[in-house]
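for the writeup, i need someone to sanity check this before i put it in the appendix. the sequnce is what the collaborator sent (i think, or maybe the updated version? ugh). structure was predicted straight from it, no edits. if anything looks off just tell me and ill rerun, i have time this weekend
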Amino acid sequence: MKSLDITRHIPILLESITDFLLEGLLALPETATPGVIIDCTLGGGGHSSNLIEKIKKHPQLMKHRVLGVDRDPDAIARNQVRFKDSIEQGLLEMHHCSFSESLNAVGERPIYGLLADLGISSDQIDSDTRGFSFRFSAPLDMRMNTTRGIPLSEWLKQVSESELADVLWKYGEERLSRKIARKLIDLRAKSQLPSDTLALAEAISSVFPPPMRYKGIHPATRSFQALRIEINEELKELETLISKVFPALASGGHLAILSFHSLEDRLVKEEFKKKEIYTLPHKKPIQADDSEVEENSRSRSAKLRLAVRK
């Protein structure tokens, strides 16, 4: 069993994100009211840790606080150990809630910056109890917040065939969505629904013609992504973040949003197009360079969009 403060997650575009957030703090007048930078997806704590270290190099900034938010109770528990010193020094504050609820933790303090890493963390993927991966047998849960909502196993027992097909197509762009939905509903009718991740992946794979099962990505990859997005209402969370939390940023507040799915990136891109609200330091999203992709293959699909609130 690994130590609570150990994370396998490698933060993506670390310096690009934390330098940008620090830049926003350094632009503030010294008389600025003490405020917060929200790390909406604390995860493994990599971005927050790097940002705190940079803040420490500028004594005038140490009146501000990084506010770490995560709906995964495991991430909160792990970071309470990792950031014990920073919490005691008043540099970091942690809250167990979804990032769409982060304003509840802010209170009356001004928000000078916001980071959201919209991907799933390596710690969640590597867990043998959470059900995000089919590399090993795990319960069909997939909830990022295990204290709320229903696990995937329960959702599969009640979803209609048409809704299931729509989810697989919309969130996974799975071309065989209808056939997969029919397969799973047939298994349900026979009381043979898969009970773990390996069985679910096998059931999905069985729909594919043999030549498609053994080339490229695993045939269940897109379906697992789609089911995770649905179970966690990830797009609804992002929509609430954009509509409720973005407008709460102080004038000059810096936003850094890291997305891994075209639907997520499209929502952020459309929001940042509002020229009357945002200034964009880069017209196109920032992506990981070859050396980062070689070190962390997960960074290949990441798109970072930066904006300054006018």
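The mean pLDDT is 92. Strands lie at 36-39, 65-70, 92-96, 111-117, 249-259, 278-279, 303-309.
thx in advance!!
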